[in-house]
Give the backbone structure.
Amino acid sequence: DTGVSQDPRHKITKRGQNVTFRCDPISEHNRLYWYRQTLGQGPEFLTYFQNEAQLEKSRLLSDRFSAERPKGSFSTLEIQRTEQGDSAMYLCASSPRGKRDTEAFFGQGTRLTVV
Amino acid sequence: GEDVEQSLFLSVREGDSSVINCTYTDSSSTYLYWYKQEPGAGLQLLTYIFSNMDMKQDQRLTVLLNKKDKHLSLRIADTQTGDSAIYFCAESTQYGNNRLAFGKGNQVVVIP
């Protein structure tokens, strides 16, 4: 198992463009999380999936953001009409079901720069 | 609501112990975590403690929890240059064990 994988690692986009990020969780992990981390801050929760169901969304997730996990495996996070304030590291995490559900494993993140 | 506070910077000599502190506000937190983040990397889970415990030791790491004061600390014994990183404490929230609220992080620099 190679851990949580995120793609791309870096993305530079012009303001107003749409971007999409992908997260592949650890296989058989049924829970998947998206966090956003801005410079000098800790990660902030964005949204959470259990299997294919999106169970929780933060107030930070404006209507320009949409996340999907269509088959309960990989997930995508799309940002439409990007703004400079969207520049951040977007982190994905996954956790298993059962007794070990306390352990969340993070990917390397996708660093987005909006110019 | 959740609010996790950490001090910002710690410099320590190689071989010494380092202690990182954190305070949190959500008394309903079930688990408290310590994560490590190296430059350009994601977060690595170091250890976590259940809220009904006072202390947990894991090799060079010792976690102390003072639930009354909502204070969490991480002690790293025999600090090594590979321990240079940003350390985040995080609390689970009322919304579930893995919906975490993180502090701003504490940068640890180990001087050889």
